[in-house]
């Protein structure tokens, strides 16, 4: 993980699917879990979704709170 990826979770939108247009940090846990089971996309999007899954799964979403300010 790169530190700048945390900020990207707050600024990048999901580019497709049911939650298209929603910030990656706002994606629901069940959707992130689906990607974890089915496979994350390649590239930066996949890395960011995997990071967000880890934050959600380990109840660490609050780590993003200081970056929201």
UniProtKB/TrEMBL annotation:
Pfam families: QSregVF_b (PF12843). InterPro entries: QSregVF_b. It comes from the Bacteria. This is Cytoplasmic protein. The lineage of its organism: Bacteria, Pseudomonadati, Pseudomonadota, Betaproteobacteria, Burkholderiales.
């Amino acid at each position: 993980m790169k530190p700048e990826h945390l900020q990207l979770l707050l600024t990048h939108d999901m580019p497709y699917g049911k939650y298209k247009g929603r910030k990656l940090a706002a994606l629901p846990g069940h959707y992130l879990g689906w990607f974890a089971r089915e496979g994350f996309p390649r590239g930066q999007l996949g890395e960011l979704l995997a990071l967000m899954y880890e934050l959600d799964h380990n109840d660490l979403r609050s780590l993003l709170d200081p970056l929201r300010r």
